Amino acid sequence: MGTVGRYNKVPYLDDVECAKKYGRVWGMYEFKRPMLAVMDPDMVKTILVKECFTYFINRRIFPSIGELYDTLFFSMGDDWRRIRNTLSPTFSSGRLKEMFSIVRHHSRKMADRLRLKVDNDEVIELKSVFAPYSLDAIASCAFSVDVDSINNPSSPIFIHSSKLFRLSILVFICHGFFPFLVPLLELFGLSIFNKTSSSYLRAAVEKIRAERDGQDSRDILQQMIDSQTVSESRREKQNKGLNDHEISSQGILFLNAGLETSNSALSFLAYNLARNPEAMKHLQKEIDETFPNKGQVQYEALMQMEYLECVINESLRLYPPGARLEREAKETIKINGIIIPKGMLVTIPVYALHRDPELWPEPEEFKPDRFSKENKQNINPYAFLPFGLGPRNCVGMRFAKIIVKLALVEILQNYSFSVCEETEIPLQMDPQGLLGPLKPIKLKLVPRSDASEHVDMCN
Ligand code: HEM
């Protein structure tokens, strides 16, 4: 594997060890490929923001990526700009307000599902609730379909969306050690990501599109379709518009990009709150004051909740789902005296940056007040990157926050999270994929009326 994982087989924990040994910039090899890790905030600013368009517009070129080459995440250069220009308005404030009531419908369903589990005194495996909830919310906003995976976890859309970006280790290793075999793999139709899942989801998106024929809708799919109807000349001038293949690709991407990340964010939030009951009580107080008598959650009020924002930020600091960002240098460039040659892969070790003790005092502690109005001016904006940064940051950030906030408020209005015998402390992290635990996180939910004593007992 090269030198990646030399101190810890979990790549982002390895970054923490490297930062301790080498400081904020170091080199490593992924197989035979040299990579530069940068967690110096000034350099991060240059790479992600100042020189994004000129030198660092692309992520790595994945080998054998199959049909997903034209998703926003993997597209490159001018294609990326055009796709991003087309998709950005999808997440404007006006659109998000429209999506809010759809997501709220799903957060209600999730709360109903949880009630059944609590009534049966079940230990909750968080992923089994948060992953289907996230998928249902995204699928409804993107395609106006109710997958209802919260009640039907074996739904093929849910299964395939969860599996889509599971790397084929065989193809990955082959690319690392035997790059000359890559064309052969492609000839046999082998792809680095799950081909069966991507084919299933593409067919599903195309079917939804075909069935809609002529019906008016305000979902994300419709906005992408509408981008096709502007004339060719206007399309070029505005650098907007998607072709049929690109439309299906973005549909597939949203399902997976949103599901894995939102599930991870929610699971770690619940875990952190269960382990920090004082912060949870503070948050419940804010929730009760904002929506008295367990009242219906409203968009404007939700968005203005200050402590909720602090709690989410602090949890994303400790457990950022995208634990590493990547950019590839388009040309050779010198930054802070360091020459980064053309083609060099630069990684920003977000997990390690978020736990740098000089930037974050007591970095391992869960302290939402770091992000309070009074304290947040002490935070270096280039040291907090849960959604990435600059023109290529997470396009779904504000949408994701709605999904996360609604779920959290809906649950904490009625329950408290509580650790139990089955809760693993500390968590062992999974060496594969996005940041996540090796074993599923398990907690109990305690009804609010008798929550206080129980929570104190368990912690
Ligand atoms: C808590 C949830 C989420 C987190 C923490 C998260 C985080 C991230 C991060 C770290 C990146 C890479 C940014 C960079 O390289 O600078 C990213 C990119 C992206 N995210 Fe998210 N994300 C979340 C939810 C979502 C959702 C709900 C969607 C869409 C429905 C979405 C769609 C995307 C897309 C399309 C990109 C690629 C953007 C581009 O290359 O232009 N994400 N996300």
From TrEMBL:
This is unspecific monooxygenase. It is an enzyme of class 1 (oxidoreductase). Belongs to the cytochrome P450 family. It comes from the Eukaryota. Pfam families: p450. Keywords: Endoplasmic reticulum, Heme, Iron, Membrane, Metal-binding, Microsome, Monooxygenase, Oxidoreductase, Transmembrane, Transmembrane helix. GO terms for cellular component: endoplasmic reticulum membrane. Signal peptide: none annotated.
